[in-house]
Protein: 4-diphosphocytidyl-2-C-methyl-D-erythritol kinase
Amino acid sequence: MENPINPVWRLPAPAKLNLFLHITGRREDGYHNLQTVFQLLDYSDQVSLSLRDDGVISRTNGLSDVAPKDDLIVRAAQALKDYTGTGYGANVGVEKLLPVGGGIGGGSSDAATTLLGLNAMWQCNLSHSELMSIAATLGADVPVFVNGYSAWAEGIGEDLTALDLPEVWFLVIHPGVFISTAKLFSSEVLTRDKPILRIRDFPDADSENVFESVVRKTYSEVDKSLNWLSKYSTAKMTGTGSCLFASFESLQEAEVVLEKVPDEWSAFIAKAVNTSPLLKALKLYADKK
Ligand SMILES: C[C@@](CO)(OP(=O)(O)O)[C@H](O)COP(=O)(O)OP(=O)(O)OC[C@H]1O[C@@H](n2ccc(N)nc2=O)[C@H](O)[C@@H]1O
Ligand SMILES: Nc1ncnc2c1ncn2[C@@H]1O[C@H](COP(=O)(O)OP(=O)(O)O)[C@@H](O)[C@H]1O
Structure:
């Protein structure tokens, strides 16, 4: 039974797609400068948070093959605690729906949800820019989820301009392959000198995901599933893979293709959203307080 004095907050951690992904250069610290469009999806992990007054951060549930101290929900809670010096602690947990290592940003989104949720629950009242700075220390993909809007992104992914994108339906296929982001960024054959695009060039510019050709050569299952989805619509890979996606004007059109996805791959349909469902959910909890 729910404790009415110390309720559990259940907050969404939505997925993202990279509608295109270019590398424009490499920085001295080894990170790469990117240009990308982050499309947020109404399809989420669920993060649960409850207050502890003993200062302890404890993971209640999460991925069994990720140690609690390495889990991005625990790392995000610890980063906020270290920054603010709060005496509070929290029970943190995540029910995973988003495939791990699929390029749809699940771990990063879990971290962002934990950060924003605990900032409110612990009444830290950090500014947006402070939260964005903490987010960037947790991973290049975390700031977009803290910001909460589909966006054009530059830098390592933290320099964001909100975009108003068509709210279409995406069919996303996970071909059952785990791809390490760090490993792909170190590939010798990666194109790292794409010309700089202007925001207004999108979506008409000649854009691609520079990781796609590299992944296709190494992971035959990704190549096979991209070929399969391309029979129905323009199919692309997101992030460093392994998920791929195609857009449809209506839910019904996406459902027709979903039905045909071979059993060997998992797949889901998600609505494109311009505003993160997290911002809406946080507002509900804030209004209740
Ligand atoms: C490629 C992208 C595109 O959205 O997404 P994913 O495919 O991982 O979802 C992101 O840039 C990934 O962001 P994220 O997964 O948070 O990466 P991080 O944990 O910060 O970095 C993992 C490793 O990737 C490399 N890295 C990451 C981002 C970047 N701009 N340049 C890099 O060189 C670094 O080697 C780093 O050690
Ligand atoms: N809460 C979490 N959810 C998913 N992955 C996590 C989490 N915490 C840590 N990780 C680690 O992050 C890596 C992949 O993260 P994920 O965000 O799923 O993939 P991607 O960066 O491809 O979108 C994995 O190596 C996983 O072990």
The chain has nine helices and ten strands.
